[in-house]
Write a structure and sequence with these properties.
Keywords: Signal. Helix content is about 15%, strand content about 50%. The chain has about 140 residues and is α+β, with helices and mostly antiparallel strands. Strands 1, 2, 5, 6, 7, 8 and 10 form a 7-stranded antiparallel sheet that branches. A 3-stranded antiparallel sheet has the order 3-4-9, with helices on one face.
């Protein structure tokens, strides 16, 4: 075979393999979260709301409220409504630097679920997302993607 033809065929095979590796999103909402959480701390209760992704969320008012969501992938997002009351949390990936997430809507009404926080560019392996109580009295967790 002609050397340039071998190079061209090899390049086509490489591109095909690279394109075949795709990522998919999986969303885990309130009702499904309990099976995906590696660790819970504090008292948690399940609630229903039409403003939540999937219609349910978990909430805790315990002073030590925390959960650890274990996932495999290159990105993770925290999804939930925004509230007129002061509500926030702190999130960290793999016990790294914590990020403050403001879940308050200052306009005075509750907004339906939206992406509250996210990170991408992670290595494609198992990670832990740690969600802890912020400065507010409650911790509210709706969904992860």
């Amino acid at each position: 075979m002609v050397p340039w033809l071998i190079s061209a065929l090899s390049m086509c095979a490489f591109i095909t393999c690279a394109l075949a590796q795709t990522f998919t999103n999986h969303t885990v909402d309130g009702g499904e979260i309990s099976g995906a959480i590696g660790s819970w701390r504090g008292q948690w209760d399940l609630y229903e709301s039409e403003l939540d992704y999937g219609g349910t969320h978990f909430a805790s008012n315990g002073s030590d409220a925390r959960l650890i969501f274990t996932f495999e992938g290159v990105a993770v997002y925290l999804i939930g409504p925004k509230f007129p009351d002061t509500l926030d949390c702190t999130v960290a990936v793999d016990w790294g630097e914590g990020h403050h997430v403001n879940m308050t809507n200052s306009s005075g009404n509750t907004l339906p679920y939206t992406t509250l926080w996210g990170i991408s560019g992670l290595s494609n392996e198992r990670h832990q997302l740690i969600v802890e109580k912020g400065t507010s009295e409650n911790l509210y967790v709706d969904a992860f993607m």
